[in-house]
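FW: tagging you since you asked about this chain on Friday. Here's the raw sequence from the shared folder, copied in full. Didn't touch anything.
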Amino acid sequence: MTYPLIPNASVTGAHGPFNLAVKTRWPALVLGCFGLFAWMSWGKLGELIIDIGHEVETPARLAAGQLLYRDVESYYTPLSYYANALAITLFGHRLEVLLTVGIVLALAVTLLVYQVMTRLTDKRWAALCAVCVQIYCAFNPGLFNF
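HL: got it, structure written out here
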């Protein structure tokens, strides 16, 4: 069965001109939610119960040459501490640098979750999982959780 062509429409691939819009709808939703959450959380340090001093002092000590788990006691994984220490070494010891590193790490985790979930499910469920990771893990307690 053949379908009539739409007059004055350019076909840009096997699936028509709206192929790109369909492919980028769910990643655009994930990135849009991420941008909204990042804008809403900028400059906020989370709850008052979280020990922000420890999260700021540990990367500064690592940038000074001490070693994690030997000189600096920690119960958490080293990713954020060493990423923050590298950023402190490059850009100086300011709170905005640490917040920016937190947003970059949250974006990396969001994109990794979306990519893994697109392999396991479809793009709609992958977008839902990525937004849930943003809500419950990346931005809920603050940016110092990675």
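FW: The chain is about 60% helix and 0% strand.
HL: agreed, and The radius of gyration is 21 Å.
FW: great, closing this out.
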